[in-house]
Amino acid sequence: MATNLLLVSDGSLLGPERVLETLHDAGLGAAHTEDPERVPGLLKGLPVPLVVDTRTVGVESLLGRLRGTRELAQLPVVALVREATDASMAEALSWGADTAVPVDNLDELGPTARALCALELDANPSVTRGAVVVAFTDPDERRMRARPLRAVGFEVLFAADPDELAGALALSEVCAVLADAALFRGTPARDVTALQAADPSRRPWVLTTAAPEVPSLLKALLSARASVVSRNAPPEDALFLLNDQLRTASTDGRESARLLHATVARFRAAGASRVRHGVTYNLSKEGVFVRTVLPPSRGSLVWLELRPHGDDTMVHLECQVIWTRPFGASQGASAPAGFGVHIEAMTPRDRDRWLAGYRRVGQSLVTQFPDAVE
Q1: How many domains does the chain have?
Q2: pLDDT tens digits, residue range 295-338?
Q3: Nearest-angstrom CA–CA distance, 118 and 116
Q4: Which residues contact 10 (CB under 8 A, 6 or more apart)?
Q5: Region for 62 from its dihedrals, namely left if φ exceeds 0, alpha if ψ lies in -120 to 50, beta otherwise
Q6: Which domain holds residue 47?
Q7: pTM of the complete model
Q8: Looking at the structure, do residues 27 and 110 belong to the same domain, yes or no?
Q9: Residues 96-110: pLDDT tens digits?
């Protein structure tokens, strides 16, 4: 059997033999290594998708290095996690995985891996949307942050210090900035506000910082055209905020605001029993976008189950898939791989709980509601 994948696991989460057997049953051959340090060398001769055990020591560092390597940045990565919790799934995505499979539902791995192995990925996606300056001191961090931007058509320009950032801002093709607050020598909010004041186009910014500092930094940026996101959030969260800053009111016909929110979502075809897991990317009162590399087909009916924000009990949503985003580079896309649904039906009790959760998300997301910051 040909080698279709590379499994990186020392057995900390699940015996590699069990994973290899699952892949074999799906018609896939896999090489295996226990040592993440060997992976870059193995991929040079065999650039295949990865399946990684998130409890194997060194996997987080490995994914950072791979996402920082241009020729391997688009390589599909499936992360195995202990269970489908918000914390474990979000952690895997923040490390640079494309999707996560809980080992207590290992049946998901075969179809997921098979779909990724069938893809022909472009290591150099086309530029269709202008340039974003990515300003971080660490080169691997810059490259990881660049990956989701390139995948949706942005050109990416790098800056390693404030002087390089100022030089990049002189270029007319730059439409936005993604920068880390630690890059600035002085007070980040003051420096960003000053740079925007000197910018005739007042191009939007997204800043990353430590999670506890997000509210205070956003409050200090009230006069600037800027959003703030935690450094530990998945890189695609910054893409959402950039798109939100660049979007004009006339191009968004939704009845309610889309809010950035990540929680585990279970989905299945309406009436079916087989469940798959994804992570929500954003939601509105009327719909949800779910991150997954195996989206249902457009127009299909799905059942979606998730916990509203601040609620311990799942709601059951009957939905129609209104659009899908396939995995890989996609010109003009505004989201990672997954699918967007319109909520067609739910019980009155679930509706009350869903809307209450939506309101709580809005109250907590100071990054999207600066006027609410006191």
Answers
A1: 3
A2: 999 999 999 999 999 999 999 999 999 999 988 755 555 678 99
A3: 5
A4: 16, 34, 35, 53, 56, 57
A5: alpha
A6: 3-117
A7: 0.86
A8: yes
A9: 999 999 999 999 999
